[in-house]
Amino acid sequence: MTVTRTGPLPPGADASTYDVVVVGAGVVGCAIARTLARHPLRVALVEAADDVGDGTSKANTAILHTGFDATPGTLEARLVREGHRLLSAYAGEVGIPLEPLGALLVAWDERQQAALPRLAEKAERNGHRTTRLLSAVELRVREPHLGPGARAALEVPGEAVICPWTTTLAYATQAVRSGVDLHLNCRVEKVRPGDPYHRLVTRRGELRTRHLVNACGLHADAFDALLGREDFTVTPRRGQLLVFDKFARDLVRHILLPVPGPLGKGVLITPTVYGNVLLGPTAEDLEDKTATGTTAEGLAGLREQGGRILPALLDEEVTAVYAGLRAATGQEDYRIAAHPALRYVTVGGIRSTGLTASLAIAEHVRGLLADCGLDPGPERPLARIRMPNLGEASDRPYRDARLIAREPDFGSIVCHCERVTRGEIRSALTSTIPPGGLDGLRRRTRARGGRCQGQDCGAEVRAMVEEYGEGAR
Amino acid sequence: MNRTVDVLVVGAGPAGLAAAARLAAAGAGRVEVLERERAAGGAPRHCAGPGFGADALGRPLDGPAYARRAVRAALRAGATVRTGVSVTGWAGPLTLDVTAPTGLERVRARAVVLATGARERPRSARLVPGSRPAGVLTTGELQRTVLRFGPRAEYIGRRAVVVGGDEPVTRGAVRSLRAAGVEVAAVVSELRVRRGAFGSVPVLGGTVVTEVVGRGRPSGVAIRGEDGRTATLRCDTVVFTGDWIPDHELARARGLPLAPGTRGPATDGAFRTAEPGVFAAGNLLRGVEPAQAAAAEGRAAAVAVLERLAGRPWPLRRVPVKTEGPLRWVSPALLGPEAVPLLVRPERRLVRPVLTVAQDGVPLRRERLGGSPAPGRSLRLPPRWTTGVDPAGGPVVISAAE
Ligand SMILES: Cc1cc2nc3c(=O)[nH]c(=O)nc-3n(C[C@H](O)[C@H](O)[C@H](O)COP(=O)(O)OP(=O)(O)OC[C@H]3O[C@@H](n4cnc5c(N)ncnc54)[C@H](O)[C@@H]3O)c2cc1C
Ligand SMILES: Cc1cc2nc3c(=O)[nH]c(=O)nc-3n(C[C@H](O)[C@H](O)[C@H](O)COP(=O)(O)OP(=O)(O)OC[C@H]3O[C@@H](n4cnc5c(N)ncnc54)[C@H](O)[C@@H]3O)c2cc1C
Questions:
Q1: Which atom of ligand 2 is nearest to the CA of B40?
Q2: Residues 6+ apart with CB under 8 A from A362
Q3: Residue A184 belongs to a domain
Q4: What is the DSSP code (8-state) at residue A398?
Q5: How do residues A114-168 score in pLDDT, each as one tens digit?
Q6: What share of chain B is helix, strand, coil (3-state, %, to 5)?
Q7: ipTM confidence score
């Protein structure tokens, strides 16, 4: 169990030789590493950024989808359905915040209303038989703050909101504690295919591995090219989002999904497990895989659409603004493929459902690796973990009298907006996978992520990073 | 742990401390101030420069000195000031939930004074698009960072753009940066700003920041002038100043109605909110005013609290006051039985404006003001402006025309 961030990779053939190397520590790569950690294999998870979950996996809408609207028969449809079941159970087991709010697809015009029964049928074909049509009156009772003109809705039970940061971190933490090596700041720049070992040239030295998994997200096509494969091209599709203040939380009770139509997909409004409300995302096809910025037009468009769905939302302050890039490949399905001759599996095109499907993708990839000749050996239990609770649905440390009595630092609030205590920040800074910086710390604790964005606590949090962070030890 | 006190003051800034000092001195019983930061004193603790009045010998006070004196005065008067103690919510009327390193508490009081201050809107709340580098902060974070770490370029950069207006907080940010050896590339203001308002620092008035550019740290900000021309200012730090929003979390958690203009809890001239026994004072009411103004409100609120403790009933009916035209807000937002001055904030610089106070469409007073009031400072209208208001009538409207 090692986490490295700087310096040359551990030298010596033994230390740098693996049975499987998973490249890319987003939610998908971390899930794969965790699944492989069940077996007596030498596994490394290798990531270009200085933290896990620093790509698309940190910037999504954080919904655990049922897959009711997937295209029946696709791999994505199956993996989303299975992933929903697996991650729901896993969340309870390790303490990932999850709220099963259910979704409402709200119809605002005749055409959308007419589409609802068809969507219900599609859901049924995807194995979801519990959807229900709601009249305008029922809808109003469920969501009293909806704007004028909401005509009907399709209720989809089972849609849930989840903490995407804790999910990725839980997988990675469990993988590392079960023996996986995690190398951060370690972009793989070249692959020299070979037998029995591929050699991976990284920024921090070389690794050797028998089997290789590409979980590079937006860069899955570029990584494929390192092995001479050109099966698809990833086109980033940007989604911009607005996070509204916690005061908006009472305005909405369900995940409010748009009814897809000829004029585009529309935007959704959903509570988050942190007690905020999300509005978004946009859908913009771009060229630049680093274009995670927001635009004036994008934000104005979201506000306009959001104001029609939930007028009172616009009276509340905006806490944060961000954008994520979906890995679109021009095919309405994932691009997961085994290349047995190369002992190599590509996990590409994990577009807008990868958080949900992650555990099922990992199981699927384990099977594909076996097809590539990997003998994983017997299964053994993973290390047990329990993640810190970032969710509002159950008590946070600042409300836990027994914890505070034991450790007074959990009664000392540092980030007042999000009510994050010294104890939580210290724990995160000294955890199995410590954060790479302030943003990583925010994803582990919520510190600096609230309405003042660090005005009050920024300096204090920095001081704690200097005291307890990696550089300090 | 459940406890009872006579008066609970939330927030040990100038307003809360002044209220507590007056109450304790007047024998209000157990007066307790709860402050979530490690030290009491409020926002002035972080303002290193002068601008906080003078001591008895006429020597100018800086923020920390002002804060220390305010704390000392409250303690000497017999108030209890507890720090590192956060009020996290309400358990019922006049009963607050508290988290402290010593444990959880539920504190009941005969009267509660909310004095939780205000914050500057950060970049995200202003919807400034672009990338999300570090090194984008508010004056408050800048000042705390400099106080804590000194002039460390990795935190505050080498060349900054300051976004704000012709107001003290923007000047405070410029001063902090320059004192820390950071070059200020420009002050960018949506409003027109007089030339030379920031000494040798270039001022770009009528200009908006349209985008933050850069990864890791900013490489610059894109701007657009009134004439539509665009440019990029190179910088590695961006400081957003002013644009205040009251820290009204507790007020809203209790469902206290807000004043539409200020977004602070609606109060009357005696600092009474909608809920009997709950008072509010200081920046919480309407964003920033000078510390001494906040302290004066705290003292005035104490008088009303004492009356309440002595059994004075809560007024049932108060007349709402609001603004129209180029006026952003008026405070207080309710007119009670007391004759009090009103603070009014213009939205932009107004040249010799005519102000009108009307109720139910009938003008009560109309006057041309001398000078040109600016958005960085409030106009103070003496009580005579509201004499003649019918306590049983409809809302009072204050409007301005040039
Ligand atoms: C706006 C938006 C909303 C979404 N909403 C949802 C939702 O509600 N529910 C849901 O289930 N899904 C949602 N998704 C989809 C989900 O976020 C993604 O499917 C998922 O995060 C993809 O994870 P990943 O691990 O494949 O990619 P990433 O998180 O991008 O991880 C890939 C990693 O690979 C690394 N990497 C790349 N190349 C190399 C290299 N050569 N060497 C080393 N490392 C490398 C990158 O640095 C990166 O960290 C949404 C996506 C977006 C953009
Ligand atoms: C950057 C800056 C520069 C300034 N420069 C000047 C100047 O030069 N001259 C001048 O006269 N004025 C200046 N001011 C204004 C002056 O500091 C304020 O007017 C004054 O501090 C307002 O007092 P207050 O008590 O209302 O609020 P604050 O001073 O903000 O105090 C509120 C206190 O309440 C605490 N609090 C909030 N919520 C809770 C809770 N839930 N539980 C416990 N505690 C809580 C906060 O931690 C804070 O300490 C400046 C302000 C700023 C921000």
A1: 49
A2: A28, A31, A32, A34, A35
A3: yes
A4: G
A5: 999 999 999 999 999 999 999 999 999 999 999 999 999 999 999 999 999 999 9
A6: 25, 35, 40
A7: 0.95
Which amino acid, A374?
Answer: L
Six token digits for residue B211: 């985008």
On whether both A13 and A153 belong to a single domain, the answer is no
Structure tokens given for B376: 């960085």
Under the banding of pLDDT at 50, 70 and 90, the label for residue B51 is: confident
Chain B contacts of A320, Cβ < 8 Å? Answer: 124
Residue-wise pLDDT for B66-111, tens only, equals 999 999 999 999 999 999 999 999 999 999 999 999 999 999 999 9
What is the model's pLDDT at position A473? 55
Could you confirm whether A65 is annotated as catalytic? yes
Q: Indicate which residue of A39, A65, A84, A211 is catalytic.
A: A65
Question: How many helices (H) and strands (E) are present in chain A, helices listed first?
Answer: 12, 23
**Which pTM was predicted?**
0.97
- Structure-token pair, residue A12: 């010596």
Atom 22 of ligand 1: nearest residue by CA position: A354
Residue-wise pLDDT for B305-343, tens only, equals 999 999 999 998 999 999 999 999 999 999 998 889 999
The CATH architecture assigned to B122-240 reads 3-Layer(bba) Sandwich (3.50)
In a domain, A273, yes or no: yes
Closest partner residue to B99 (CB to CB) among A413, A438, A456 is A413
User: What tokens appear for B31 in the block?
Assistant: 């007066």
B86 Cα: distance to centroid of ligand 2 (angstroms): 16
Superfamily (CATH) of domain B2-119+244-309: FAD/NAD(P)-binding domain (3.50.50.60)
CB contact (8 A) between residue A454 and residue B211:
no
On whether both A152 and A182 belong to a single domain, the answer is no
Cβ-Cβ contacts under 8 Å for A234 (sequence gap 6 or more): A218, A219, A220, A221, A289, A327, A328, A329, A348, A349
Mutate to test the interface with A, among B141, B142, B241 (most CBs of A within 10 A): B141
CA distances from B282 to B32, B39, B104, B131, B291 (A): 17, 18, 27, 35, 8
